[in-house]
Amino acid sequence: MGQALDAILGYRFTRSDLPREALTHRSALQGKHPGSGARKNGSNERLEFIGDRVLGLLMAEWLAERFPDEQEGDLGRRLASLVSQPVLARVAETIGLGEALSVAPGEARAGIKRRATVLADALEAALGAIYLDGGLDPAREFVRRAWEGAMVAQEAPPKDAKTALQEWAQKRGLELPAYTVSARTGPAHAPVFVVTVSVGDLSGEGTAGSKRAAEQLAAEHLYGSLPP
Questions:
Q1: What residue ranges of the chain have pLDDT lower than 70?
Q2: Catalytic-labelled residue, pool 21, 107, 121, 124
Q3: Residue 204 burial by CB count (10 A; 0-12/13-18/19+): exposed, middle or buried?
Q4: 124 a catalytic residue
Q5: Tens digits of per-residue pLDDT, 152-179?
Q6: Are 140 and 31 part of one and the same domain?
Q7: 69 and 103 inside one domain
């Protein structure tokens, strides 16, 4: 696992335990007793927790450098977009992180490695591992390399998709967007929500590991297909 993550991230780890932990989805530990070699907290959730904070700091630093004349509101919307689940999932897919993940066989057959929430969490865990192994400098180098495309593509401060969709409906005298959970699947430890949003006769759908994320994806889906 260590060499695989080294190649994917472009960073050479000195601690072999960190890449192993970063690539271990919690489903891979089901049924394993701590005494069998898998420690109780051996999944990537702890590293994800750290990586999330590191990403927020490094992205805020980068945005402040890149847009010195923008105020907190615009910078905050940029930040929220760049650290959102859809963007993290796309970055993880681009660098091939999903295929390197260790998951339960049944989950692998169900396609869990392609789920946006799993990819996003794994990317944050990988960043957390880099930070713990080498500190902020290599973590910063990785973030600026991996997110370069997303950063360059963000010409103007983005609007939150749910907000933009609501404003679009209000300007046309339509009812506010209505969000409905149309399906919930998956095991208890990794649920999958399918949310449908409707505005008049138009609708969009989003699938994610939480209702909030699925609503956001549904709004993005619908807003992206709206007529001008």
A1: 1-2, 31-41, 228
A2: 124
A3: buried
A4: yes
A5: 998 888 878 898 899 899 999 999 999 9
A6: yes
A7: yes
